[in-house]
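pasting for the record
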Amino acid sequence: MTSSPSSPVPANRRTSRRDRRRPLGEALARAASILGLCALPMCDSLDNIDVEVGGRAVVPAGTILDDVLGVLDFDAFQSIDLSAEFENQGVTKDDVDSVQILAFTLRVESPESGSFDFLRSASFFVETEGQPRVLIAKLDEVPRGARELSMDVVEGVDLKPYVVAPSMKITSEARVSGRPDEETTVVADVLLDVDVSLPGC
């Protein structure tokens, strides 16, 4: 019994199989492109770090009859150098591209019955040698009875020239009405978003 000859493979089927074979170089290039796209979100998160700056100010008890222009004197804000914080994150000041303020808050730490009723308004500025004094946050009206304040951050202020300097300071101007009945400790917290350059990002 003789077997019948195999039927030839249609030309169009042979062609489609060849078309599915891609050169190795093209496949590698495509894979690299996909990996690059996947890396973009990682770069977006890796090249931005959050840095916190905090300080305390003590407002003495007493009475002032008239509104006066004073300051909230935060000792830690008088000389700020973020070199150590950057080193902990594996970067240096040379890697900094830009710095923005995400949040600026004030809160009464003590006494428990204390509030910001002695404060009518407050403005904060950043300073360093060779750069202008720039307004970075303010609150034009302080709510009665408040123990915590979220300052209005001034948009569009890049703190890079101040952060990369040997040191910077944050100063204040405050409109006060009298002083608290008891010595009051105020804590300031500033959250910075630092954009840095990383290899490959």
